[in-house]
Amino acid sequence: MVKLFCAIVGVAGSAFSVRVDESDSVDDLKVMIKARKPDTIKGEADKLQLFLAKTADGKWLPSNDPDVVAMRSGAVSEKVQNLLNGQIDPAEEIADVFVPAPQKKEIHVLVVVPEGAVGSASETSKMDQVVQEVHEIGMSTQR
């Protein structure tokens, strides 16, 4: 078993861990990620896009990196954006993808959830936008 730390890109919240066997596929990892975050991730697990959280020098992204800390509030820095190249092949085995072996205090997987498949905070923020728009329309018709 290997423990991987994941972060959902563009969604406020802390990184979370999932345990997978080295012989599992990346597709199995998607299923485990969705199962770990059912209130946050809606829709089918195979629609998730997974990216390695590796820096240009091949090292895993430290969990205390300022860009990772900013992700906790939903921010996506240019550094994180640049890591979203080359989606991990769902057919690959975990043992072949996660080299060097993941260590503590690192982020290993960046998760991108399809538009409309993010629950909780995203739904709340969309509802806030609708309420604001309705309020603005109401204010403009009163004038």
From TrEMBL:
Note the superkingdom of the native organism.
Eukaryota
The residues forming the signal peptide are 1-17
Example GO CC term: the record gives:
extracellular region
All residue ranges annotated as the Crinkler effector protein N-terminal domain in the record: 2-112
Q: What is its main location?
A: host cell
Record's keyword terms, sorted: Secreted, Signal
Q: InterPro entries per the record?
A: Crinkler_N
Cell location: Host cell; Secreted
Record's protein name: Crinkler effector protein N-terminal domain-containing protein
